[in-house]
Design brief:
By secondary structure, the chain is an alpha/beta fold. It has 14 helices and 13 strands. It has one domain: Alpha-Beta Barrel (TIM Barrel), CATH 3.20.20.140. Strand 2 and strand 3 form a beta hairpin. The relative contact order is 0.14.
């Protein structure tokens, strides 16, 4: 008797779109005055910035050439080269073909711009989020079921944020992206609870991609650290948000809500688990695993110690991504193939590549 195995889709839990001028074509006519503009850096001809409401805001644009991506791959000793038309979603078929080449069935797309605060004005916040989400909805419709996404929400207007969550759910979104800090507030401020309640109702996870929406915090770290503050300004706040979630009662308030912490690697998880255990008077064990108890998932990287991570947190809350489209320390286009060659069991690999991200994103 023969048996037929159902192919499980491999999911890239951390891929990106690079915002372009087309991103803002979805603004309403009355909102065109808010349209972001691209300006050239005065000191570096290879760098351009988004100018929003007269200020440089958000992540700088991806003006990197294909040649520079190839050079960066050599410097980083990792493959991060992506054709411009694919990373900017100018040729979606090219993107899909590249995914197939990389062994990826589905990408979950995250924004690039909102790694920092984009605006302090609610009207601009609403307009830009709305335009971005409609751009991604069109990308999803063209993506043959392989391009899913996490929506951006205008946290300066909670009612409008809820409208964006509802729209996004109906148009291919599989998560709601939140910054660890949103202006003066931590993401677990009760102000944001209506967003979490709606996400829970609609079966959408809250995804915390590395970011920092507090401009004062970012500026201090950017000027004090030799790496420009990237590690301290964006990765550390994401870990801090996870630690806070493990310590507070928000997960208990929304018991069906899933949480994902993306692009920080996962090597910090045992440290945080131990800190939680010491403060709670509990030792982490098979009986007490806060990542399972609170429904939290974390993206790993190929150079994490996976056997150690699984020993500490189990194998059901790890996912993996390529950071497709970026050229930073997390980027590794061949992450899926490299991970497949690792020493974990086939069952463990299948969970991290497919089962776990499918559960996280409700796919």
């Amino acid at each position: 008797m023969t048996t037929t195995q159902t192919k499980i889709a491999v999911i890239d839990a951390d891929a990106h779109v690079i915002e372009t001028e087309r991103t803002w074509d979805y603004l309403e006519p009355s909102e065109m005055k808010f349209r972001p503009q691209i300006i050239q850096s005065a000191s570096n001809p290879n760098v351009r910035y988004w100018l929003i409401d007269g200020k440089i805001a958000g992540l700088r644009t991806a003006a990197t050439s294909d040649e520079q991506f190839a050079k960066n791959s050599t410097t980083a000793l990792r493959n991060i080269s992506v054709d411009a038309a694919a990373r900017k979603m100018e040729d979606i078929d090219l993107r899909l073909d590249h995914m197939t080449e990389l062994g990826i069935d589905i990408e979950v797309l995250h924004n690039s711009l909102w790694i920092e605060q984009v605006t302090r004005r609610p009207d601009i916040d609403v307009a830009l989020c709305r335009s971005w989400n409609r751009w991604l909805a069109d990308i999803w419709r063209e993506g043959k079921g392989r391009l899913r996404w996490t929506c951006v929400v205008p946290t300066l207007d909670i009612d409008a944020a809820k409208e964006e969550v509802r729209f996004s759910k109906l148009n291919g979104a599989v998560g709601v992206c939140m910054q660890p800090f949103a202006g003066e507030l931590m993401m677990f401020d009760p102000l944001f609870f209506p967003i979490y309640a709606l996400a829970e109702e609609l079966d959408l996870p809250i995804i915390v991609h590395i970011a920092n929406g507090n401009p004062d915090f970012v500026e201090i770290l950017r000027t004090r650290y030799t790496d420009g503050g990237g590690f301290a300004a964006f990765r550390v706040p994401t870990v801090l948000a996870c630690f806070d979630l493990l310590r507070n009662d928000v997960a208990e308030r929304f018991p069906r809500l899933r949480w994902g912490f993306v692009e920080t690697s996962a090597q910090w998880v045992p440290w945080v688990m131990n800190e939680i255990a010491r403060r709670n008077g509990e030792r982490y064990s098979a009986q007490y695993n806060p990542f399972v108890t609170k429904n939290i998932y974390v993206t790993t990287q190929t150079d994490d110690d996976h056997a150690y991570l699984i020993q500490k947190m189990g194998e059901d809350r790890l996912v993996i991504g390529t950071d497709y489209g970026h050229a930073d320390p997390s980027s590794e286009l061949d992450a899926i193939a490299i991970f497949r060659r690792g020493e974990l069991s086939d069952d463990q690999k299948s969970k991290i590549l497919a089962t776990n991200p499918a559960r996280l994103y409700g796919l």
